[in-house]
Structure formats: structure tokens, C-alpha cells
């Protein structure tokens, strides 16, 4: 609790120091805030130092890696920000103030357990790039390969955990007091983000992610992923191949290299959908600082991806649901979109589909028949959010990374080729993927996938067949025995029902024998004893001997 209060005070102090209060439109505040906060913030506005974009960037850098990453995401949204803000925030992608090279060298030597000269022929103390979580130094291996060494910033984990704790506090307050709290699932979103950002602190995991992404695009002409040198990777350092390329944000350099920008933009969309739907493993931190372009073939340029710390994945159900929704959007089948939302449980089962369909159409219909440069995705997101509030649509935490990546892809496409029609580019890919999911190829792929397991079980099949037949034979014997027992019981019941009158008659005969043999009852008749004996014998016969 105290740590959260201290951190909150720290954030407030940074806001005042860099005068971020100037971003708040005081005239739109409620009257009780206008005459308190407004008066307080108006003091000193005439002595501001630096542009508003520079002050925002410095404030985010001062607040730490979580806020820096937020600035990185905003830097790709030039449709939402003015150019002066976007230009400053773009510096957060790889121009965060570095820590000293000597400190980085100490970390590397301690992790490898050897002097740096024993592992590398060359090592540059000046970092090549510096980001929010780590920084990169160039080096050369003893075997001659040029590499880069990524080093985690020292003492960064406590700050991150403190910020995560503050986010949890804010999420709990939102969940408890906001009418949108339960729908937005803030606690689940923070939990998912905590898992993601803490993974960034483990470079051994990033190395494994890089290796998998490299295998997925092995010999591909779309994307190149640098080689990992596993012998030099630890939890806080990673050594990979040094790549040469043009940063994707350097539009002038790409144009000077005669890169086909339309092809480049379309390939970016294809790479994204290939990762999401074919591989179920996608790069979820695709801001321009992590993407380069190989211009050696300008007519068919290849992307180069680095920094695989944040990766996302989707289940088969998520992919199927997402693809069907996107195709329905592309076909303007808003009825299907509404039904899919209801079937998936994103909105309550009693949601009126017709009304939901109408609301979705009003938001999405203006998007079509326009090039990317004419589409305001910011307004679309606002409209969808309003629709979500109206129909109690819930946030799906497992798709948060995907949504973030989509924002990055859209921002990148806007910079590379503003006339790109995202829908025309993506729809054929999704249609091909859906056909593979329901066509003969999917059956063949499933057989191929299961074949090794079936082959391993093949020698056991004769024993399994024998055991199954033996078990079936025993079950048949038990069934026959049970049937015979039931038949015998039925016969016994029928016999008992048939003999019941004779038994009753036998009982009456014995009673009669006792009566007639009583000399008092029959006035001492001499023949009574003989009659009673006959009745007694007849009763015994009827009760015992009669079958």
C-alpha cells in the first residue's frame, strides 16, 4: 500500500515537473475541478521549457519502462497524434538514455563467468541502441562473426513490479466503482500485461522465441530472423547475429533505395496474418524500432525482425472465431458478426441480434470503399467502444496483444503506403485459410500430424484386438448367464402364481383337519379323526409336494 502511494506521488511529481497538466483542457473540467486544479495548473505555464512533445517524452522516460512502452505504441498512431508529439515519441523506440558501457561489460562478464576478452575479439562500450528494458552493444566472436549483445538494464525489475502493483490497484478500483469495470476486465488485462512484461526481463525466453520465429520463416522471402548464439545466452544477456538493413521508419532511405513501398506494405500485412493464423505465434511488439528492411531486392523487399521478447499466440478456437469475424466484416455481413459475438459469449445470450447488427453496421460501414489514408481508425475504435458499452461486450484478455499488434501494423502501413487497402490485402489470405480448415487439405494435415503416434501404436494393435475380443466374449458369457437367471426367475414366479390357489387350499385343508379332529367341535363323532387325518394329508400335499 505504501509503495503504491509513494509511486503515485512520484508520478504526480513527474507530471508537475514536466507540466503535463498543460495537456488537460481545463475549460472542459467540472466546475469544482476547474477552480481548484485549473487555478493550480495555470501557475507557471508562462515559464515552460521545451516543446510539449519533448516534455511528454522526457516524462515517460522518467517514469520507467511501462510508460515508455505506452509512448512507443502512441508513436505509431499519427492519425491520433499531432506530428510534433509523434516525432518526439518515436525517439522512445531505440533512443532511450543508456546506462554506462562499463556497467554493461560488468554484467556480461559476470553472466558468462569470464573476462570479456576471453569471449569476444571486439566489444564496443558505446551502445548501438538503447530501449526501455535493455540496450545493445556490438561485438565480434572469436570465430569472426559480427554479433550484437543485448543486456538487461540493471535494477529494473523492482521498478516494473512496483508499477504493476499500482496498475493492479487502479484496476481493482475501476472494477469496483466503474460501471464498465466488469465488462473491461481490468484485472485480467493487467495480469496478462504483467506476464508479458516480466517475460521481457528473461532473455533466455526471448532467445527461444527468436529461434522458433526463425524456424517458422526458414527460407522465406518475406521475413528474416537473425541467428541466435546459444552458448552466450543467459537470463540477462543474449547474443545474436548482427543484421544490416534500413529501419522501416526511414522512409527517405527506403525511397532512395528504390524499395517498392506498395509491395513492402502488403508483405507486412501478409507476414502478420501468416504468423497469427498459420503459425499461431506472432511478434507482438512490432513498433518501427524492431523492424528493418533488406533492400537488396527492392522489387521484392524482405523484412528483418528483432526483439522477440513479446510474442503472442491464439488457440484454434480463437483463430477460427477471429477469421470468421473478419471475413464477415469484409463481406459486410453484420448479421453474422452479431451472431458470432452472441455464440462466443462476448455479449450476453439475450442480446437482441437485430439491434446489435444495426449498431455494428453504423460503425463499420463507413470504413469500406476507402483507401487507408482516408479511414480514421481512431473514430472507428471510439464507435466500437460505444457499441460495446451499449451491449455489455466484454474485453477478451487473450486478444489484447493481438489488438495492440494490429494497431502497430495499421500505423506502420499508414507510414509506408497510405493508399494501401488493408481489406483487399487481407481478405484473400483469410479465405484461403478458412478453406484449408474445412477442406480435404485439413484432413490430410491431421492424418499426417497423427501418423507418428499411430505408427507407434501399430505393434500393439493385435494385442488390443485380442483383449477386446476376449473382453467381448466374457461380457457375452455374463450376459447369457444373466439372461438364464432372469428366465429361471420368471419361471419360478409363474409357477408360484399358478400354485397359489393350491397353497391356499392346502392351508384351508389343514385348518379344517384341526377343526374336524376336535371331538368337542364335532360332538365326539367317531369318524372325525379319520376325516381330519385325510384333510391334513391333503393340505400337506398341496403345500409341499404339489410342484
UniProtKB/TrEMBL annotation:
Residues 91-340 form the ABC1 atypical kinase-like domain. ATP binds at residues 128-136, 150. Pathway: Cofactor biosynthesis; ubiquinone biosynthesis [regulation]. Its main location: membrane. Keywords: ATP-binding, Cell inner membrane, Cell membrane, Kinase, Membrane, Nucleotide-binding, Transferase, Transmembrane, Transmembrane helix, Ubiquinone, Ubiquinone biosynthesis. The active site is at residue 285. NCBIfam families: PRK04750.1, UbiB. PANTHER family: CHAPERONE-ACTIVITY OF BC1 COMPLEX CABC1 -RELATED (PTHR10566), PROTEIN ACTIVITY OF BC1 COMPLEX KINASE 7, CHLOROPLASTIC (PTHR10566:SF113). Belongs to the protein kinase superfamily. ADCK protein kinase family. Belongs to the ABC1 family. UbiB subfamily. This is Probable protein kinase UbiB. It comes from Marinomonas phaeophyticola. The gene is ubiB.
Amino acid at each position: 500500500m505504501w509503495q503504491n502511494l509513494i509511486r503515485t506521488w512520484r508520478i504526480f511529481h513527474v507530471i508537475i515537473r514536466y507540466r503535463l497538466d498543460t495537456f488537460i483542457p481545463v475549460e472542459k473540467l467540472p466546475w469544482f475541478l476547474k477552480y481548484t486544479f485549473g487555478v493550480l495548473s495555470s501557475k507557471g505555464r508562462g515559464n515552460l521549457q521545451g516543446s510539449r512533445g519533448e516534455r511528454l517524452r522526457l516524462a515517460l522516460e522518467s517514469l520507467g519502462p511501462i510508460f515508455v512502452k505506452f509512448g512507443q505504441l502512441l508513436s505509431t498512431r499519427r492519425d491520433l497524434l499531432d506530428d510534433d508529439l509523434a516525432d518526439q515519441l518515436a525517439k522512445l523506440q531505440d533512443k532511450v538514455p543508456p546506462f554506462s558501457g562499463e556497467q554493461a561489460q560488468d554484467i556480461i562478464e559476470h553472466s558468462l563467468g569470464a573476462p570479456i576478452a576471453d569471449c569476444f575479439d571486439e566489444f564496443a562500450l558505446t551502445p548501438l541502441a538503447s530501449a526501455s528494458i535493455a540496450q545493445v552493444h556490438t561485438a565480434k566472436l572469436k570465430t569472426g562473426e559480427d554479433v550484437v549483445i543485448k543486456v538487461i538494464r540493471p535494477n529494473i525489475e523492482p521498478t516494473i513490479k512496483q508499477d504493476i502493483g499500482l496498475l493492479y490497484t487502479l484496476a481493482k478500483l475501476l472494477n469496483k466503482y466503474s460501471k464498465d469495470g466488469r465488462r473491461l476486465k481490468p484485472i485480467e488485462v493487467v495480469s496478462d500485461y504483467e506476464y508479458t512484461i516480466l517475460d521481457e526481463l528473461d532473455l533466455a525466453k526471448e532467445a527461444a522465441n527468436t529461434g522458433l520465429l526463425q524456424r517458422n520463416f526458414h527460407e522465406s522471402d518475406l521475413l528474416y530472423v537473425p541467428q541466435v548464439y546459444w552458448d552466450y545466452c543467459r537470463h540477462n544477456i543474449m547474443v545474436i547475429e548482427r543484421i544490416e538493413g534500413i529501419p522501416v521508419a526511414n522512409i527517405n532511405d527506403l525511397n532512395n533505395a528504390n524499395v517498392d513501398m506498395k509491395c513492402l506494405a502488403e508483405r507486412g500485412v501478409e507476414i502478420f496474418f501468416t504468423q497469427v493464423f498459420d503459425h499461431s505465434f506472432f511478434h507482438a511488439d512490432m513498433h518501427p524500432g524492431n523492424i528493418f528492411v533488406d533492400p537488396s531486392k527492392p522489387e521484392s523487399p524482405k523484412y528483418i525482425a528483432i526483439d522477440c521478447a513479446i510474442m503472442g499466440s491464439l488457440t484454434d478456437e480463437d483463430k477460427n472465431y477471429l477469421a470468421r469475424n473478419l471475413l464477415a466484416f469484409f463481406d459486410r455481413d453484420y448479421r453474422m458478426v452479431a451472431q458470432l459475438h452472441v455464440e462466443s459469449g462476448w455479449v450476453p445470450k439475450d442480446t437482441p441480434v437485430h439491434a446489435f447488427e444495426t449498431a455494428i453496421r453504423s460503425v463499420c460501414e463507413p470504413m469500406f470503399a476507402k483507401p487507408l489514408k482516408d479511414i480514421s481508425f481512431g473514430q472507428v475504435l471510439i464507435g466500437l467502444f460505444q457499441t460495446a458499452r451499449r451491449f455489455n461486450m466484454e474485453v477478451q484478455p487473450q486478444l489484447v496483444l493481438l489488438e495492440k499488434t494490429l494497431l502497430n501494423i495499421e500505423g506502420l502501413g499508414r507510414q509506408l503506403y497510405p493508399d494501401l487497402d488493408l481489406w483487399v490485402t487481407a481478405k484473400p489470405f483469410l479465405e484461403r485459410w478458412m478453406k484449408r480448415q474445412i477442406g480435404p487439405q485439413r484432413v490430410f494435415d491431421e492424418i499426417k500430424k497423427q501418423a507418428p503416434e499411430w505408427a507407434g501404436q501399430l505393434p500393439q494393435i493385435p494385442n488390443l484386438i485380442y483383449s477386446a475380443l476376449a473382453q467381448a466374449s466374457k461380457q457375452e458369457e455374463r450376459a447369457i448367464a444373466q439372461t438364464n437367471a432372469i428366465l429361471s426367475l420368471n419361471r419360478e414366479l409363474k409357477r408360484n402364481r399358478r400354485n397359489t390357489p393350491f397353497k391356499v387350499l392346502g392351508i384351508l385343508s389343514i385348518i379344517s383337519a384341526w377343526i374336524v379332529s376336535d371331538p368337542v367341535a364335532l360332538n365326539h363323532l367317531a369318524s372325525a379323526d379319520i376325516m381330519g387325518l385325510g384333510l391334513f394329508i391333503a393340505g400337506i400335499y398341496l403345500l409341499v409336494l404339489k410342484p
